């Protein structure tokens, strides 16, 4: 099959890697939620060989992620597991009964509905190890305001496609994160009006 391709992933992968290489320097086992095309997993896995990078997504995206994996030499990137945030995360998310000590997700929280954002943080609370590092990439609003006109237009486009989608308010995300035992370590300004939020789990 032709591999799925995201130009945005190509554009943002290096600035994201610069931060992940520091945040995940002592991590061992990363769970990615919503791996999408699989491009990020392949690239980060290649550049962070000390990590086991577990891809996941809805089953419908596994074929595309596997197509990237079939052409990759990154042995540390694992075949996708099915995680639908509507459901409990499967037991198989734990290797040797050790919970993941890191989590990465990009461009998912504005796609999924707000009840699923709540479940996402519940999943982190229930499944990740003590002191796990959590990185969340994407656009957010601050003090109820879009940070750019392009983000405001993107939000309209998202809602036109699915009323349940939309750029989230950072304050709401931080409240949920806190209730999941996450402390905000950094909030990085990223290209194209995105942010990379870094948390540590208590
Ligand atoms: C905009 S894409 C982002 C993909 C990739 N992370 C990226 O940055 O290009 C949103 C992702 O969220 C996933 N997704 C949507 N609904 C989901 C759900 N209920 N549970 C888990 N993932 C979901 C989609 O399948 C898709 O991979």
What Rg is obtained from the alpha carbons, in whole angstroms?
A: 16 Å
Q: What are the segments in which pLDDT stays under 50 over at least 5 consecutive residues? A: none
Order of H and E elements:
HEHEHEEHEEHEHEE
Average pLDDT reading: 96
Percent helix range: 25-40%
Report the end-to-end length measured between terminal Cα atoms: 43 Å
User: Approximately what portion of the residues adopt beta-strand conformation?
Assistant: 15-25%
Strand order of the largest sheet: 3-2-1-4-5-9-8
Give the class from helix and strand content and strand pairing: alpha/beta
Specify the overall morphology: globular
Associated small molecules: S-adenosylmethionine
- The number of distinct β-strands equals 9
Largest sheet: 7 strands, mixed
Number of helices: 6
What does this protein structure show overall?
It is a single chain. The protein has 202 residues and is of the alpha/beta class. 36% of the residues lie in helices and 24% in strands. Strands 3-2-1-4-5-9-8 form a 7-stranded mixed sheet, sandwiched between helices. The chain has a two-stranded parallel ribbon with strand order 6-7. Helix 4 (114-127) links the parallel strand 4 and strand 5 (133-138). Helix 1 (7-23) packs parallel to helix 2. It is globular. It starts with 6 loop residues before the first helix and ends with a strand. The structure holds S-adenosylmethionine. S-adenosylmethionine (SAM) binds at residues 6, 9, 34-36, 40, 57-58, 61, 83-86, 106-108, 111-112, 116.
């Amino acid at each position: 099959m032709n591999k799925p391709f995201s130009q945005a992933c190509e554009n943002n992968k290096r600035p994201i890697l610069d931060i992940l290489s520091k945040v995940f320097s002592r991590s061992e086992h990363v769970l990615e939620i919503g791996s999408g095309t699989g491009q990020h997993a392949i690239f980060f896995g290649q550049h962070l060989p000390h990590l086991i990078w577990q891809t996941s997504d809805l089953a419908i995206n596994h074929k595309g992620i596997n197509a990237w994996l079939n052409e990759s030499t990154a042995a540390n990137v694992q075949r996708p597991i099915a995680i639908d945030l509507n459901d409990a995360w499967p037991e198989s998310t734990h290797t040797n009964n050790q919970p993941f000590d890191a989590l990465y997700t990009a461009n998912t929280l504005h796609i999924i509905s707000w009840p699923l954002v709540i479940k996402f943080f519940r999943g982190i609370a229930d499944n990740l190890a003590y002191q796990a590092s959590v990185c969340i990439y994407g656009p957010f609003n601050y003090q109820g305001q879009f940070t750019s006109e392009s983000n405001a237009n993107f939000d309209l486009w998202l809602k036109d496609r699915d009323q349940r989608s939309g750029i989230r308010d950072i304050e709401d995300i931080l409240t949920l994160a806190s209730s999941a035992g996450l402390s905000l370590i950094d909030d990085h300004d990223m290209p194209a009006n995105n942010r990379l939020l870094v948390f540590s789990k208590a």
